[in-house]
Design goal:
The protein is built from six helices and seven strands; from the N terminus they run ββααβββααβαβα. By secondary structure, the protein is α/β, with parallel strands linked by helices. The radius of gyration is 20 Å and the shape is elongated.
Length: about 160
């Protein structure tokens, strides 16, 4: 089973916290999770959200099939339509990244995407999203407004 690997520092010691993705994404806060009224609990919730954005996003490691453990910023993710049309290797190639965000590291409810979107909006690490338009541009060449890929011109050698 794939686990999310999060380096956890307590005092001077470091531990690797390995969690099942379906549980782990629920543990990472989002802005709407900060519900306590003003006071120490509210302050703690806000601090945990800030730490998740700044530290967890940069230190979280995901196990990939062929590249080992990689950080979030080293990964690419294709939107749903693209993921049905291209392989993981092709999506990574389009993004010029080592690997894609592992499907096994995603939870079924899609909270993983909400957490990553929040981190990206607040200068945290996030995978690069590959859109259909970008994939077409990279794989087929520049696509004009007509949707027809431009063909590279072929230089002919002069005949002697």
């Amino acid at each position: 089973m794939t686990e999310l690997k999060l380096p956890l520092r307590v005092g001077g010691a470091q531990f690797d916290l390995n969690l099942d993705p379906t549980v782990a994404w629920q543990c990472l806060p989002l802005p709407h999770d900060v519900q306590s009224p003003k006071g120490p609990v509210h302050d703690l919730e806000k601090r945990l959200l800030a730490l998740a954005r700044a530290r967890v996003s940069n230190e979280l490691r995901l196990q990939t099939s062929f590249r080992g453990d990689l950080g979030i910023a080293d990964l690419a993710v294709g939107n749903e339509a693209l993921s049905r049309a291209l392989s993981e290797a092709e999506i990574a190639q389009v993004a010029e990244h080592a690997a894609v965000f592992p499907p096994a590291a995603r939870d079924g409810d899609g909270r993983w995407q909400d957490v990553l979107d929040d981190w990206a909006e607040h200068d945290g690490a996030a995978p690069e999203t590959v859109t259909v338009a970008r994939a077409l541009n990279v794989l087929l060449g520049d696509v004009s407004r007509t949707g027809v890929p431009s063909r590279p011109t072929v230089q002919r050698r002069p005949t002697r």
